[in-house]
Design brief:
There is one protein chain. The strands form 2 sheets. Strands 4-3-7-1-2-6-5 form a 7-stranded antiparallel sheet. A 7-stranded antiparallel sheet has the order 11-10-14-8-9-13-12. The protein folds into 2 domains: about 10-90, Elongation Factor Tu (Ef-tu), domain 3; about 110-200, Elongation Factor Tu (Ef-tu), domain 3. By secondary structure, the protein is mainly β. Helix content is about 10%, strand content about 40%.
Length: about 210
């Protein structure tokens, strides 16, 4: 379990295929900020751009770790198969503060950035979410974008999905990998857990998985 409060900006520095066919996954090597891995052990969970992954090897001297990601996970996420900056969050501990909202680290869909532009001292981020996620997104509700817990400022339903508008303060830009987004960028989305359960309770006889 996570909170959507990013604890470090890492970088995917190497990608190694785990086989020769499209059904094989990949091994990612992630380089972290200084001392980030000091309290990390093999088997720990770390969210990469909002996707929960398991640490499969550690190199504390180089501040690097690896994860193995399946072809299925790669097909359901964005930004995990290319070199570049990535948001990191370690799993929530029982005594930690819950600064964002409850995040499972399970990506519900991939969205597309439609706008990312400065407005006064802040930035406006607009993302088009898939149509099947639209009913879970609400004004002042929570959404996780590339692992970052954010508040929805505006919702616009469109024929091909739902566009959400979010205000980002300078601190968020400076301390997350959202800083590298641009129109057309693909982002990982996770809806609020509460919205998921409300949907299930209101429609117990229907399939409600947002995937």
């Amino acid at each position: 379990m996570f909170t959507g409060i990013i604890t470090g900006i890492g970088r995917i520095t190497a990608i190694e295929p785990l086989g020769k066919t499209a059904t094989h996954g990949k091994r990612l090597t992630i380089t972290c900020p200084s001392n980030y891995l000091d309290d990390t052990s093999l088997g720990d969970s770390i969210a990469l751009n909002g996707a929960c992954m398991t640490v499969t090897s550690l190199d504390p001297a180089q501040q690097q770790f690896t994860v193995d990601i399946s072809a299925e996970s790669l097909s359901k996420t964005a930004s995990l198969d290319s070199i570049g900056l990535i948001n990191l969050e370690k799993a929530l501990r029982a005594h930690d503060r819950l600064g964002g909202h409850m995040v499972s680290g399970h990506v519900d869909g991939v969205g597309s950035v439609t706008a990312f532009e400065p407005i006064s001292e802040s930035w406006c981020l607009r993302v088009l979410a898939p149509k099947n996620l639209a009913k879970y997104l609400a004004f002042k509700g929570s959404i996780t974008i590339n692992g970052v817990s954010l508040t929805v400022n505006q919702v616009t339903d469109l024929a091909d999905g739902c566009e959400v508008s979010i205000n980002l303060i300078p601190h968020t830009i400076q301390n997350t990998a959202l800083q590298v987004l641009k129109p057309g960028s693909q982002v990982n989305l996770e809806i609020d857990l509460i919205a998921r359960y409300v949907e299930r309770m209101l429609n117990p006889a229907t399939e409600t998985a947002a995937s």
